[in-house]
């Protein structure tokens, strides 16, 4: 089924490019050495023939819409095609809600997806798909058919979500004591080198000037010591609360293997629980922190 | 540690809680003096970064005071803030920081007595929890790092 989806994807992307309906199609291409995939920016129908679709397609390509070259294309009124799994399309929905992209300037090629492999688990198995487990986010996936697309590739009826709890790792942490959690996080964050790969990988981190770059006042200490790292990750978590689509790209991008995605995935769960809002599911919905209910929880208030 | 006096930062809404705190003063209510008040236009002005920064700079506790629900001078500032504060508390807890160190109170301009009570209660609470050593250690580590680097540069 993946093969037929891949052919269909190449065909659709080729059509868009030869009709000049979009200037570029952002998708997945073969990675170095044949294993895995990497992002591919196809500008011609020939290049579109190099697009791939398999269970190694973990990247959330929505990030690239607010980065070059897509940003320039969109700014001058051009159109961009983008390959999106359901979880990536959730990010596109948030970008739409926040006015970062115009619906008509993006052509979404939605992929029906029954889970992508955890790159950490898949490396040893040779070709992607031959071994390894799906990413935690794919467990009980509700968006195997993307919530937003112009062209749908794949059969929605044929997709089955993996079993298990997508927040299992987060709940493990929650069951620890306060002190254990503190030493867990300080242990991890002490290794943070402030490379900001988590921010760069995040589709929701599109600010032209990030708070980390502001120095009057300086909210976040520049050096990569624990004090600055903790402030950075706390503030980043709050900036993503109610917006994070739990794609897990921040954690995957971290060169120091800090599980930063746990923080935002945890908060996404808390927001859903308390405010009944899941980011990126419905372009018409009002984001959790842009509204309120009179009966919001306030048992913590004196 | 015999005489630990907590440092508490309070962000008070200009229209309600700040006036309430003022009333506590003008009516000569006695309350614990370990609180440093910062006046903000609305509890909705309190960015979570303020709270994090306060802890980072040595606060043992933070209080935010806003208008009672329905009384906001800007109609819905406190409602919006309530969602954020709920989330901040959840986040602090997840990271291993006792969320009781961050308190929120609805306190109107006529509730000088309530304000005095809240400050006393929170001060007692923070005294019980002790200093927020975790953050202070981090600050000290940075300071000694800096000195080391400066020492090398000075040689």
Q: What can you see in these coordinates?
A:
The complex is a heterodimer of chains A (302) and B (155). Chain A is α/β, with parallel strands linked by helices. Chain A folds into two domains: 157 residues, no CATH class; 123 residues, no CATH class. Chain A has eleven helices and five strands, in the order H-E-E-H-H-E-H-E-H-E-H-H-H-H-H-H. In chain A, helix 9 packs parallel to helix 11. About 3% of the residues of chain A have low confidence. In chain B, strands 2-1-3-4 form a four-stranded parallel β-sheet, sandwiched between helices. The radius of gyration of chain B is 17 Å and the shape is globular. The termini of chain B are far apart. Chains A and B meet through helix 7, helix 9 and helix 11 of A and helix 2, helix 3, strand 4, helix 4 and helix 5 of B.
Task: Describe the secondary structure blueprint for this structure.
The complex is a heterodimer of chains A (302) and B (155).
Chain A: H1 2-18, E1 24-30, E2 37-42, H2 45-48, H3 70-75, E3 80-84, H4 86-97, E4 106-111, H5 119-122, E5 151-153, H6 168-174, H7 178-189, H8 197-201, H9 226-240, H10 249-253, H11 261-275
Parallel strand pairs in A: 1-3, 3-4, 4-5
Antiparallel strand pairs in A: 1-2
Chain B: E1 8-13, H1 17-26, E2 35-40, H2 48-56, E3 61-66, H3 77-95, E4 102-106, H4 112-129, H5 133-154
Parallel strand pairs in B: 1-2, 1-3, 3-4
């Amino acid at each position: 089924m993946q093969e037929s989806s891949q052919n269909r994807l190449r065909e659709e992307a080729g059509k868009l490019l030869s009709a000049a309906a979009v200037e570029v199609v952002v998708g997945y291409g073969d990675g170095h050495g044949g294993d895995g995939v990497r992002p591919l920016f196809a500008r011609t129908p020939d290049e579109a023939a190099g697009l791939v679709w398999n269970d190694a397609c973990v990247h959330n390509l929505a990030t690239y819409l607010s980065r070059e070259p897509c940003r320039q294309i969109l700014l001058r009124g051009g159109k961009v095609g983008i390959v999106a799994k359901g979880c990536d399309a959730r990010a596109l929905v948030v970008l739409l809600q926040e006015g970062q992209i115009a619906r008509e300037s993006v052509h979404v090629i939605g992929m029906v997806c029954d889970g992508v492999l955890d790159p950490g688990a898949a490396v040893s198995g040779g070709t992607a798909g031959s071994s390894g487990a799906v990413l935690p986010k794919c467990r009980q996936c509700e968006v195997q058919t993307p919530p937003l697309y112009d062209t749908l590739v794949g059969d929605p009826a044929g997709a089955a979500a993996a079993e298990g709890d997508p927040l299992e790792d987060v709940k493990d942490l929650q069951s620890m004591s306060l002190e254990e959690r503190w030493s867990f996080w300080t242990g991890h964050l002490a290794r943070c080198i402030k490379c900001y790969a988590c921010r760069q990988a995040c589709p929701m981190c599109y600010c032209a000037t990030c708070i980390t770059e502001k120095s009057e006042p300086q909210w976040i200490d520049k050096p990569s010591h624990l004090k600055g790292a903790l402030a950075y990750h706390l503030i980043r978590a709050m900036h993503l609360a109610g917006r994070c689509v739990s794609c897990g790209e921040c954690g995957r991008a971290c060169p120091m293997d800090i599980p930063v995605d746990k923080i935002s995935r945890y908060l996404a769960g808390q927001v859903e629980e308390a405010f009944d809002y899941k980011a990126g599911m419905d372009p018409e919905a009002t984001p959790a922190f842009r509204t309120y209910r009179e009966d919001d929880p306030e048992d913590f208030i004196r | 540690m015999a005489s630990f006096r907590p440092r508490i930062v309070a962000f008070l809404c200009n229209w309600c809680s700040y006036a309430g705190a003022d009333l506590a003063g003008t009516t000569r209510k006695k309350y614990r003096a370990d609180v440093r008040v910062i006046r903000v236009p609305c509890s909705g002005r309190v960015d979570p970064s303020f709270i994090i920064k306060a802890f980072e700079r040595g606060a043992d506790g933070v209080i935010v005071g806003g208008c009672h629900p329905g009384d906001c001078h800007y109609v819905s500032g406190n409602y919006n803030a309530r969602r954020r504060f709920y989330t901040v508390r959840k986040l602090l807890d997840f990271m291993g920081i006792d969320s009781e160190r961050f308190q929120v109170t609805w306190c109107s301009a006529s509730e000088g007595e309530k304000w005095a009570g809240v400050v006393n209660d929170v001060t007692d609470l923070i005294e019980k929890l002790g200093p927020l050593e975790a953050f202070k250690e981090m600050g000290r580590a940075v300071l000694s790092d800096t000195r080391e680097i400066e020492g090398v540069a000075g040689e």
